[in-house]
């Protein structure tokens, strides 16, 4: 989609010889446009909920809420949190989970660790440990397997034998890789506390967190889980909305100097928004491009096209 958006933007700008956008400038505008539309998605979803509560939202094919939910779920991910020290875990970030989080949905804690170790061979969609006793350890289908070396997550599809588990995700591609197996049925959701109330709750005999009722507080780039029994890497798993990956239009340069689109480059990244956002991305980038080349007509065109869609999200409609 990113190449189609760029071609559209260049075609509109070059129509009256307004100027040329370099690939580096386009990538900057594309990243900003995607981020702005991504955040607007949550705000528009909130307006649609208000419309629904006011009985002015449609159903069936006119169910806008479902459309937004499907678009937003692309960015909803579940990842184990990397352990910092003790019961302190890193929040999702580019360095710990390979993506930054926009909004935390829930934090799941697994009090029961069924098994741990390291794989001894690599087979696609399997965990193989020649020294394991998976059957006698009480592992069953649905239990959670964490590759604590790569921080990848899978579920047990079938306990094939004492030494082999079939998984629903291919998370073991190298050996040795450390693993942790958690009892899925014992999972509990941790409650988020603010710092002003955490001290009072933690010291109370009636409300103090326990293994079955854990809590967490956030600070800077980490979260602290209480009680301290949650301290094993992979034992705390977060479900959150991540930011979209930064788009990048990649190319190869010809002798004539005109860049040619090449999506085979290792740093290529397409837009992650749904296809129906192509028009919105183009108009948003036109607005930024118009400001860059100081052409008021281009800015006004981009803004006018965006305002043309605003009534779609209005509660008053």
Write a concise keyword list for the protein shown above.
317 residues, alpha+beta, 2 domains, eight-stranded mixed β-sheet, 6 helices, disordered C terminus
What features would you describe in this structure?
It is a single chain. With 317 residues, this protein is α+β, with helices and mostly antiparallel strands. The protein is built from six helices and 16 strands. Strands 1-14-4-11-12-13-3-2 form an eight-stranded mixed sheet, covered by helices on one side. A six-stranded antiparallel sheet has the order 5-10-7-8-9-6, with no helix packed on it. Strand 7 and strand 8 form a beta hairpin. The longest helix has 31 residues, at 23-53. Mean pLDDT is 83; it is low at 313-317.
Pattern of helices and strands: HHHEEEEEEEEEEEHEEEEEHH
Through-space gap between termini: 31 Å
The mean pLDDT is 83
**Are there runs of 5+ residues with pLDDT below 50, and where?**
313-317
Structural class category: alpha+beta
What share of residues is helical?
A: 25-40%
How many individual β-strands?
A: 16
Main sheet: strands, sense, barrel: 8 strands, mixed
- How many structural domains does the protein architecture include? 2
Widest β-sheet, arrangement of strands: 1-14-4-11-12-13-3-2
Shape descriptor reads globular
Beta fraction of the residues? 15-25%
Number of helices: 6
Q: What's the quick description here?
A:
With 317 residues, the chain is an alpha+beta fold. Helices cover 29% and strands 25% of the residues. The two termini are 31 Å apart.
């Amino acid at each position: 989609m990113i190449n189609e958006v760029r071609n559209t933007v260049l075609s509109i700008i070059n129509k009256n010889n307004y100027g040329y956008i370099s690939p580096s400038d386009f990538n900057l505008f594309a990243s900003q446009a995607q981020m702005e539309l991504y955040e607007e998605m949550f705000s528009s979803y909130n307006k649609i909920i208000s419309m629904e509560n006011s009985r002015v939202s449609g159903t069936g094919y006119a169910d806008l809420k479902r459309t937004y939910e499907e678009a937003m779920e692309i960015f909803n991910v579940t990842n184990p949190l990397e352990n910092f020290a003790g019961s302190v875990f890193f929040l999702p970030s580019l360095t710990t989970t390979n993506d930054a989080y926009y909004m935390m949905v829930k934090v799941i804690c697994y009090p029961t660790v069924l098994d741990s170790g390291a794989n001894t061979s690599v087979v696609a969609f399997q965990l193989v440990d020649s020294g394991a006793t998976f059957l006698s350890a009480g592992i069953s289908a649905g239990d959670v397997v964490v590759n604590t070396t790569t921080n990848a997550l899978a579920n047990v599809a079938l306990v094939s034998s004492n030494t082999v588990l079939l998984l629903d995700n291919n998370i073991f591609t190298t050996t040795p890789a450390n693993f942790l197996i958690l009892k899925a049925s014992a999972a509990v959701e941790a409650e988020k506390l603010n710092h002003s109330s955490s001290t009072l709750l933690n010291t109370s005999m009636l409300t103090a967190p326990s293994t079955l009722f854990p809590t967490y507080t956030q600070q800077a780039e980490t979260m602290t889980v209480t009680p301290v029994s949650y301290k094993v890497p992979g034992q705390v798993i977060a479900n959150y909305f991540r930011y979209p990956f930064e788009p990048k239009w990649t190319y190869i340069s010809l002798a004539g100097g005109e860049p040619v689109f090449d999506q085979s480059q290792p740093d290529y990244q397409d837009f992650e928004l749904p296809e129906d956002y192509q028009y919105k991305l183009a108009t948003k980038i036109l607005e930024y491009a118009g400001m860059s080349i100081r052409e008021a007509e281009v800015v006004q065109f981009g803004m006018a096209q965006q305002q043309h869609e605003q009534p779609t999200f209005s509660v008053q409609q």
